[in-house]
């Protein structure tokens, strides 16, 4: 089955700096890669996703890049703000949501 | 727009007592529904999923069960809770396709 590895497990950045979280996947048939943000005590919230026919996608300060050849994808957050502090999860799947495999999460802390 | 409601938000139950967590989705028809458990604030483990009324698939053997009595209602149950059942439980839904949307979660503490 699919295996998703996420790095780093913890990340601290100064407010205004950029943050990058990386994930690798094992199944070359995976074609959907979402990212979730989870604040303390709440459910994960979808923040951005990308499909395998696209190499990059942006939404304001957030971007995701996908390298299908290397089987890795990354989340980029620019101009970080304290409210960006949360746990971020990457995930990968091929044919259905049931097969969504999550990474282990990254605790991002933005220092004021 | 679609919304998902999950309750109760928190509960403390003694060992051996029953459990019922409920989840409803609004604004969509025939969604796929899921129950996840999250331990230690990180890993998301899929427990059950359902593609329709009365259709439940279990991903892991455990002390829990799920039911889907109505199209947009999903229930997580246990007859006798164990200490190891403590955790953060998340209901989620998806339509055709890959995108999963989560509820706010339920904190269960078994004492």
The helix-and-strand class of chain A reads mainly beta
For the secondary structure, the number of strands of chain B is 11
> Helical segment tally of chain B?
0
Helix content, binned percent of chain B: under 10%
Mean model confidence by pLDDT of chain B = 93
Taking the sheet with the most strands of chain A, its summary is: 6 strands, mixed
Low-confidence stretches of chain B: none
Give average pLDDT of chain A, whole number. Answer: 95
Work out the helicity level of chain A: under 10%
Radius of gyration of chain B: 13 Å
Span between N and C termini of chain B? 38 Å
Shape type of chain A: globular
- Spans of chain A with pLDDT under 50 lasting ≥5 residues? none
In N-to-C order, the SSE pattern of chain B is EEEEEEEEEEE
* Rg on CA atoms of chain A, Å: 13 Å
Overall morphology of chain B: globular
Greatest chain-chain contact? A-B, 20 and 23 residues
């Amino acid at each position: 089955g699919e295996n998703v590895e996420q790095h780093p497990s913890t990340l601290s950045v100064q407010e205004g700096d950029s943050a990058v979280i990386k994930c690798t996947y094992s199944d070359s048939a995976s074609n959907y890669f979402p990212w979730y943000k989870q604040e303390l005590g709440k459910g994960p919230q979808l923040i951005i996703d990308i499909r395998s026919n696209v190499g990059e996608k942006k939404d304001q300060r957030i971007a995701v890049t996908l390298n299908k050849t290397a089987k890795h994808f990354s989340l980029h957050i620019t101009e970080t703000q304290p409210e960006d502090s949360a746990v971020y999860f990457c995930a990968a799947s091929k044919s259905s949501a049931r097969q969504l495999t999550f990474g282990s999460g990254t605790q991002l802390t933005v220092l004021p | 727009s679609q919304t998902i409601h999950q309750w109760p938000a928190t509960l403390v139950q003694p060992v051996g007592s029953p459990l019922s967590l409920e989840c409803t989705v609004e604004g969509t028809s025939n969604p796929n529904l899921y129950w996840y458990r999250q331990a230690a604030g990180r890993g998301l483990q899929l427990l059950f999923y359902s593609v329709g009324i009365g259709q439940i698939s279990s991903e892991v053997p455990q002390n829990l069960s799920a039911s889907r009595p109505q199209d947009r209602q999903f229930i997580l149950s246990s007859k006798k809770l164990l200490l190891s059942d403590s955790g953060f439980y998340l209901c989620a839904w998806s339509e055709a396709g890959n995108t999963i949307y989560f509820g706010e979660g339920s904190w269960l503490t078994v004492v």
